[in-house]
Amino acid sequence: MKIVHSKRELRETLAPYRAGSIGFVPTMGYLHDGHLSLMSTARARCETVVASIFVNPLQFGPNEDLDVYPRDTSGDTEKARDAGVDVLWMPESAQIYHDGHGTIVKVAHLTDHLCGAHRPGHFDGVTTIVAKLLNTVGPTYAFFGQKDYQQLAVVRRMVRDLDFPVEIAAVPTVRESDGLAMSSRNVFLSNSDRAAAGEIIRGLCAAHEQFSAGERRAARLVETVSAQIRRSGRAEVDYVECVDALTLEGLVEVSPQGDAVIAVAARFGSVRLIDNILLDQPAPAFTGSEP
Ligand code: PAF
User: Fold this and answer.
1) Which residue's CA is minimally distant from atom 5 of ligand 1?
2) How many angstroms is it from 215 CA to the middle of ligand 1?
3) pLDDT at position 291, please?
């Protein structure tokens, strides 16, 4: 695996491989099995695999966790190598954002909902950095996790609207044995919050089961998830919403085909977690016990 820092080095490294397929996995590092699953999916599909590690300041709000976002450069390097990454790009902030950077990529409508409504400017930061990363890497495919369902939808819309010559591939959420979605932020959960956070997926699965049994009222499904999370006694919920899978607009009733997503954001202590379940796909399987 080759490690590169500058954009020029990255472009020179990739030049001989442009005739074949290039798979790209953008990350903010502190790699876990969710990232590794993106990398191994890219490995299986593409001739050359590029991953980036860049903690993007533009997508963090003023009171968010940019300064304490977990970092582990040597651990990440090992994990990326083991996952079959060919080129690991680790740029410095100054190489990404020039003095006086003044261009923001903004996707309208989709960003009005869910996390977009609770984290002003967050998705503008995501789309701006993803546009820059895609322009520099020039991949054939870019891989994004379904855990960040809204991010995936927003990036897909940007790519479609701005004619980026790349295919965005979605990779299913990877979970701990009790179902908690893997996230770099899980490391900050206290033991009690870690145990309590398992209620998110239990609530989502209970709502999925209810939908499968015929419940179509979005409010009922949302209440099932909310009640389960409340049971933990430790969560401060930002939102639980049942939204259209394409537009992300809130639903009153889910169609029998289940083209809807139930999405959650909740804080356990200082840690904000997100998760979701797609009603037109099988519910995730997990053992139920904490790791
Ligand atoms: O999902 C992430 O880790 C980030 O939002 C991304 C896509 C790497 C952009 O900074």
Assistant:
1) 126
2) 34
3) 65
- Identify the pLDDT of residue 278: 98
Residue 72 has pLDDT above 90, yes or no: yes
Question: What is the atom index within ligand 1 of the atom nearest the CA of 184?
Answer: 3
User: Could you give the residue ranges of the DSSP H alpha helices within the chain?
Assistant: 7-14, 33-45, 73-82, 93-96, 114-118, 122-137, 149-161, 191-212, 218-231
Residues 42-61, mean pLDDT to the nearest whole number:
98
Q: 126: Cβ below 6 Å to ligand 1?
A: yes
Q: How far is the CA of 280 from the centre of ligand 1 (A)?
A: 25
Q: For the whole model, what pTM was predicted?
A: 0.97
What 3-state class would DSSP assign to 279?
A: coil
**Structure confidence by residue, pLDDT tens digits, 105-124:** 999 999 999 999 999 999 99
35 counts as catalytic:
yes
For the cut 80, the answer to whether the pLDDT of residue 253 exceeds it is yes
Cβ neighbours, 10 Å, residue 205: 19
Interior angle at CA 153, CA 55 and CA 155, nearest 5: 45
Whether 143 contacts 169, CB under 8 Å: yes
Q: How far apart are CA 220 and CA 217, in angstroms?
A: 5
AA letter at 148? D
**Averaged over 81-90, what is the pLDDT?**
98
Instruction: From residue 144, give the alpha-carbon distance in Å to each of 19, 39, 46, 51.
Output: 23, 10, 15, 12
